[in-house]
Design a protein that fits this description.
By secondary structure, the chain is α+β, with helices and mostly antiparallel strands. It has a seven-stranded antiparallel β-sheet with strand order 2-3-4-5-1-6-7, with helices on both faces. The two termini are about 15 Å apart. The protein contains four helices and seven strands, in the order βαβββααβαββ. Helices cover about 35% and strands about 30% of the residues. It is globular.
Length: about 130
């Protein structure tokens, strides 16, 4: 199972979710990045991408606890980040999780979802399985 928390810089949070899902949809519509059989659905702050039987759940979160957790990530894992002060103030994030993919067939899809977020604005991607920033 893949799992990432992508904290979004305060300067880039406005419109981030809409831009992100539009870019994922464009990648799906192109049929090349995720494959012709991929499906993508968005319902409010939640989206679901299905590729080769693997389901990626993507959630936009701006609840009050996000800034507290961002500060914790900055303090505990961000010692080497030059902009960890900005990370500590992030009030918005995108979470990506998936159903199990034991053969890592869709690892590249996971990486692409993270890269699309990084292309929308300043982000910090934390791999929950590896316990480190990507």
């Amino acid at each position: 199972m893949y799992a990432a928390l992508i904290m979004i810089a305060e300067a880039d949070k406005a419109g981030f979710w809409d831009a992100y899902v539009a870019k994922v949809q464009a990648a799906v519509d192109g049929g090349v990045r995720f494959g012709a059989e991929a499906t993508f659905q968005v319902a409010g702050p939640k989206a679901e991408l299905v590729v080769s039987g693997i389901t990626f759940t993507i959630h936009h979160d701006d609840a009050a606890h996000v800034v507290e957790e961002s500060a914790d990530f900055a303090a505990h894992y961000g010692a080497d980040l030059p902009d960890r002060g900005d990370l500590a103030q992030a009030t918005t994030r995108v979470t990506i999780s998936s159903t199990p993919d034991p053969d890592m067939v869709e690892f590249n899809s996971y990486v692409l979802l993270v890269e699309i977020a990084e292309s929308v604005g300043k982000t910090w991607a934390f791999d929950q399985n590896g316990g480190a920033f990507m």
